C-alpha cells in the first residue's frame, strides 16, 4: 500500500511548505476536471490531511491499490426522503427528527427508503440504478436541479460552480457530482423547489 508520502510524491523528511506545494500540485493533476478521478483526488486529499495532522489518523483506513486509486470505503448506505413528503406532512427540513418521523409513516419506496452507493458512483447515479427518478438537468455541476439536503453523513462534491456557500454550509449539495464520504448518509432529495434554489434551476432534461 502506498504511504501518504508516496501519494504526494514527497520524501519522509519533507517540511510543511514542501508538503503543501506537493498537495496543490497533485490536487491539480488528479482533479476530475483535469482528467483525474474522484478516488485519486480523495486519496491525495486524505494524504495531505494525514501529513498535516502529523500522522495522527490511521492511514490503514485509506487502502490504496498499486495505482493509488482505491479507497477502503467502497459502499455507502443512503437513506432518502422526498422533499414533497416533508411539505405534505407539514414538516420542516430543519426538524431534528425528520427521519425518525419518516420511519413512523408508511411511505412508498419512491418517497422514503435506502439504497447503496457503490465505488465511485454519484448519489444521483445510485438512485437511478435503484430505479428512482430523481430530478436533474445538466448532470455536470451547472444547475441546482439535482440538489439534495444532506441531513447526516457527508458528501464530497466536485466542481460545483453554482451553489453559494450559505447553501452548501447548510448541506444543500449537488447529487449528480456528489459521492458519499461516509458509510451512511441521510438525504432529502427533490429540494429544487426551495425558493433559494429557484434562480439556479435549468429546464429539466428527459431521463
Ligand atoms: S443536474 Fe445540474 S448540477 Fe446536477
Please give a structural write-up:
Pfam families: DnaJ (PF00226), Fer2 (PF00111). It contains seven helices and seven strands; from the N terminus they run αααβααβαββαβββ. Mean pLDDT is about 85; it is low at about 65-75. The strands form two sheets. A five-stranded mixed sheet has the order 2-1-7-3-5. Strands 4-6 form a two-stranded antiparallel sheet. The chain has about 210 residues and is α+β, with helices and mostly antiparallel strands. The protein has two domains: about 5-60, Helix Hairpins (Orthogonal Bundle), CATH 1.10.287.110; about 75-200, Beta-grasp domain (Ubiquitin-like (UB roll), Roll), CATH 3.10.20. Bound molecules: FE2/S2 (inorganic) cluster. FE2/S2 (inorganic) cluster binds near residues 137 and 145.
Topology:
Layout: H1 4-8, H2 16-30, H3 38-52, E1 75-82, H4 83-89, H5 98-103, E2 112-118, H6 123-129, E3 147-152, E4 155-157, H7 165-168, E5 172-174, E6 178-180, E7 184-189
Give a short synopsis of this structure:
The protein is α+β, with helices and mostly antiparallel strands.
Number of strands: 7
End-to-end separation in angstroms reads: 40 Å
CATH homologous superfamily of the largest domain, by name?
Answer: Beta-grasp domain
- Kindly name the structural category: alpha+beta
Cofactor: [2Fe-2S] cluster
Family: Belongs to the 2Fe2S plant-type ferredoxin family.
Region (Disordered): 19-39
Pfam family, one: Fer2
Amino acid at each position: 500500500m502506498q504511504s501518504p508520502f508516496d501519494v504526494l510524491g514527497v520524501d519522509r523528511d519533507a517540511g510543511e511548505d514542501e508538503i503543501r506545494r506537493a498537495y496543490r500540485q497533485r490536487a491539480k493533476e488528479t482533479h476530475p476536471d483535469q482528467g483525474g478521478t474522484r478516488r485519486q483526488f480523495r486519496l491525495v486529499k486524505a494524504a495531505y490531511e494525514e501529513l498535516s495532522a502529523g500522522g495522527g489518523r490511521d492511514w490503514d483506513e485509506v487502502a490504496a491499490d498499486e495505482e493509488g486509486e482505491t479507497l477502503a470505503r467502497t459502499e455507502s448506505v443512503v437513506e432518502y426522503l422526498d422533499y414533497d413528503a416533508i411539505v405534505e406532512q407539514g414538516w420542516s427540513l430543519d426538524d431534528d427528527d425528520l427521519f425518525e418521523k419518516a420511519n413512523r409513516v408508511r411511505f412508498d419506496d419512491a418517497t422514503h427508503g435506502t439504497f447503496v452507493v457503490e465505488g465511485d458512483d454519484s448519489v444521483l447515479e445510485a438512485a437511478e440504478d435503484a430505479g428512482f427518478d430523481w430530478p436533474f438537468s445538466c448532470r455536470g455541476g451547472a444547475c441546482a436541479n439535482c440538489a439534495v439536503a444532506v441531513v447526516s453523513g457527508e458528501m464530497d462534491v466536485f466542481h460545483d460552480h453554482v451553489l453559494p456557500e450559505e447553501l452548501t454550509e447548510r448541506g444543500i449539495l449537488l447529487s449528480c457530482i456528489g459521492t458519499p464520504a461516509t458509510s451512511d448518509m441521510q438525504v432529502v432529495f427533490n429540494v429544487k423547489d426551495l425558493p433559494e434554489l429557484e434562480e439556479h434551476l435549468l429546464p429539466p432534461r428527459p431521463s
